[in-house]
Amino acid sequence: MRPEFPTSAKPALLTLRLGLLATFVLTLALAQPPRSPTLGDGPWVFEAAGEVEVRVSIVARGLEHPWALAFLPGGDMLVTETPGRLRLIRDGELVADPVAALPPVSNAPLAGLLDLTLHPGFEANGLVYFTYSKPGEDGVSNTLARGRWNGERLVEIEDVFVADSYGEDRGGASRLAFESGGIVYMTIGGAGVVGDERAQDPGTHIGKTLRLTDEGGVPPDNPFVDRPDHAPEVFTLGHRNQIGLAIHPDTGALFASEQGPQGGDELNVLLPGRNYGWPIVTYGRNYDGTPASEQPWRADFEAPYLFWVPSVAVTGMAFYTGDAFPDWRGNLLVGGLVESRIAPSGQVQRIVMNENGEIAREPLLRQLRQRIRAVYEGPDGFVYVLTDEDDGAVLRLEPN
Description:
The chain has helices at residues 10-31, 122-125, and strands at 44-48, 52-63, 66-71, 77-81, 85-90, 93-94, 113-118, 127-136, 139-149, 154-165, 176-178, 184-188, 208-212, 234-237, 242-247, 254-258, 265-270, 306-308, 314-319, 332-336, 347-354, 357-364, 372-377, 383-387, 392-399.
């Protein structure tokens, strides 16, 4: 027999039921993968701070989750697609067929074809470097590879360095940055699983920044080169998932953006041999809302240069040095996939800094409601952005 309630209690019961239903629906919505609306045809004009009008147009679209972009001499662009294809944009058009037979990539979570950059001596040697998730019997390994660009295709492809395997079928982010002398920095992410302490183990590459020669060897001045039980390639340790890497154009300092868990995204200045604390300290929370660490910072770890709470799921970034946007010169432009886990809310954040640190932030491109994977300054001084979507695009930002 169904229980009877006094008439006066029925409105309260209805309110309770509606409240529970709303909570259930909201929980389901938050559990779903982020979805973005279809990107229109553009162009769009947005107003930024300082009465700056930004015109946003589509350079190319139809890319499947693009990860990285490199500008070739003469105006062509190479773009990596996460599923494992290298694409060419020529004369403003996306060439239909991939331009290289790349090694197979893992399709595990967080895995795929990742970063892409040109060797500092590209005009003489034609070398293009890229990172990918290499499948193997023991699991996935982040791998640095290179090939030679012959003007039409990438050829003579070879692995240069294979990092330690994750030991299972999952991947992690990887970004590249070259010093002018040919030293290459490579981030190894994927240390974000609860209970995974490998980011603190100096003997493994997981959760580290590596410092390598362009042949994949160990520079003799690396911080741990003579330390027993330390991987000699390690430059910094204690990282969760570093998604962006950029060298400051004036100081030469190496900056990295790092995704935290729920909250706690970081921007770090990477210094040789330093420990950045993950997973022992973080400003983030676990995905059930509980604190991810007992305290957010300790004196024996390097503190973030700045952090995001709520997080924006930080991604690739670039320092702006061009003339097209004079007010942005010296600023750091950082991509973001989603703010506070509420989709669609991708954006680019313009971070104003001086010698003392951060002094202002401005969100850009929120109106497009797209996941932003990476940001670049082009040879023309304009800003280029990759959208991380099924129908991904290369966008160009220029003054209106």
